[in-house]
Each structure stands twice: as C-alpha cells, then as structure tokens.
Amino acid sequence: MENKTGVLLINLGTPDSPSTADVRSYLFQFLNDPRVIDLPWLLRKILVNLIIVPFRAPKSAKLYQQLWTENGSPLLYYSNKVSQLLDDELGQDYSVHLAMRYKSPGIPDVLAEMKKLNYSRIVVLPMFPQYASASTGSALEMVMTEIGKWWAIPELKIISQYYDHPDFIDAIVDRASKYDPGDYDHVLFSYHGLPMRHVDKVYEEGLCEDRDCEHEITAENQYCYKASCFATTRLLAEKLGLAEDDYTVCFQSRLDKNWLEPFSDKVVETLAKQGAKKLLVFSPAFTADCLETVIEIGDEYQQIFTQNGGENVQLVESLNDHPLWVSCLKKLVLDVK
C-alpha cells in the first residue's frame, strides 16, 4: 500500500484576465467573503454589490492591464512555478497541488482532484506568512468545509503561519541583497492593511491596542496579524543591520481610516516632505508579486513620493520563485509531525 502525502498550496487569487468583466467577477467573490468584509449579510451585499464592485471594477481593470505580463498574472505565474519546484524538491512521496482562494484554480475543484487520489495525509499550506482571518483563516475555512463533506477524511495537517521561519527571513534578505539599505534615506516594511476590528477579534478581552504587539509575541497575541508583522520586521531589520530609526512598519491598501496604522502612502508622503530622496520598500506579507507590490508600491507610491519632493521608491521584489522560499516551504512540509 502506497502512503503518499498530498500538499495543498493556497494563494489569494487573481482575475482570470484584466478585462473589466473578469475583474468584476473576482472582486465580487473576494469582497463578498464574510471574513474579508465582516459586516452583517445584507449590509455587506449592498455595500459590495451595489457600491464597491460597480465603481471599483473598471478602475481596477486598468491597473491589472498594467500588471499583466506575457505570462499573465504574476501571482498565478509564480505560484504555479513554486508549486512545481516544491513538487520536485519533495520527491515521490509527496504530490503538490495549487489552489486559489478566489477564482481559478479554486479550492473546491483542486480538493476534488485530491480526493480522487486518495492521499493518506494532506498538508495544507497557505502562502501567507502572517496569519489573518481575511486570508489564511478564509482559505482554511473553505478547505475544512470541503473536506468535511468527504466520507473518508484523511489525516489533515494545517500550517497557519510561519512569519519567523529562518528560511523565510533569509529568502527576503537574499532577495534584497542587490540593494544596499545604506544607499537609501529610509526603509519601509509595508504590509497589507486590515480593519482594526479584525485584529481586535483575536482577543477574548480588550483590544489590540491594549497589548504591546509592536515589540513582542506572546501566547495571547500569537495570531494577531499586527504582532506577527512587527515580529517579521524585527527579524529582517536584525539581519539587514538596520537600527530602529532606519525603518518604519506601515500598512497599505486601506478602505477607510479605521485600519491598521500608519498608512504606507501617508508615510511615503511625509518622508518626502521631510526631505527624503530615496526609499527602499519591502513587502513581507506578499510572497508573489501582485497588484499591491508592482502597481501600488512600485507605481503609485513612486508618484506620491515625487509629487512631494522625493526621487526614487525602490521596491524589493517579492519572493516569487526564489530558491530559499521553495526551501522554506519544503521544510515546513517536512517538519509537520
């Protein structure tokens, strides 16, 4: 009897094409997720389907058209490459599958394929280093819902986060090795934003602001997205030889003012007005280049910076298919007990 392990890699997802119709379909699925916009059902439907998606889809489609390459979506392209590389690295006792939380290849379809292969064990590995309910939590919920329908449920192992894994940290440092932080006036570590209420929900009592999430990880805040973002940053700063005054942790892609602060675009604007000419920007929450890295940081923040007196915003590329990133994923899978 062959005992084989199936590995399910999960990334967020991407439109099938940069057309307005496909972007609208993607946003519709993404923003109707109750873990993404955690409002009462009717209010969420009105807000998303009647206000956000109709107005946002045409604008987002233009941005996706700028992002698209000859290989299509960078996020899907690099996720596929990493899946193939990891499959090669793990050897014949493992088989790696890739799914997207939103759009194609969808989690239900990929799990249906995995069910037919009758794996003895399945390892679920979201490609989100820092846990957030809107990303990791949503992906894992769908996986458990789908597998929960199976009559025979195999051994299931879930990796929720790995924000401090040495190979993850080393991969980012190596990715940035062609840039000398000393050549820049300031370094930003820009993470995807979340509503404050999302991180507050991690705690049984009190709020995130009641804890020292900027400086420590404890048993209480170990699944606080803000705490893990700051923890990743501390490890990167140490490896890069950065003093505390050399860098800022910030959060991008907000929808309103009640999101994690400081806001990345405002930090970029302020630094320019203070006389900074060159910024180096890391995006450690994104493991594959996407709209938020290439367009938001690389283009939009560059425009904000130059409009306010700055010169150059240099984006450190995402891990994409970096060998140490593949090594990190391999070790995560092999270390599962």
Description:
- The protein has 337 residues and is α/β, with parallel strands linked by helices.
- It is built from 11 helices and 8 strands.
- The strands form 2 sheets. Strands 2-1-3-4 form a 4-stranded parallel sheet, with helices on both faces. Strands 6-5-7-8 form a 4-stranded parallel sheet, sandwiched between helices.
- Strand 7, helix 10 and strand 8 (312-315) form a beta-alpha-beta unit.
- Helix 3 (74-90) packs across helix 11 (323-334), helix 6 (166-175) crosses helix 8 (225-240) and helix 6 (166-175) runs antiparallel to helix 11.
- It is globular.
- It starts with a strand and ends with a helix.
Brief summary:
This protein has 337 residues and is of the alpha/beta class.
The general outline is globular
Supply the helix-strand structural class: alpha/beta
- Sheet with most strands: strand arrangement: 2-1-3-4
**Would you count the extended β strands for me?**
8
SSE arrangement, N to C: EHHHEHEHEHEHHEHEHEH
Q: Uncertain spans, ≥5 residues at pLDDT below 50? A: none
Tally the helices: what do you get? 11
User: What portion of the residues fall into strands of 2 or more residues?
Assistant: 5-15%
Q: How far is it from the N-terminal to the C-terminal residue, by CA? A: 21 Å
Helix content: 40-55%
Any idea what the radius of gyration is? 20 Å
| Major β-sheet profile | 4 strands, parallel
Overall pLDDT, averaged?
A: 97
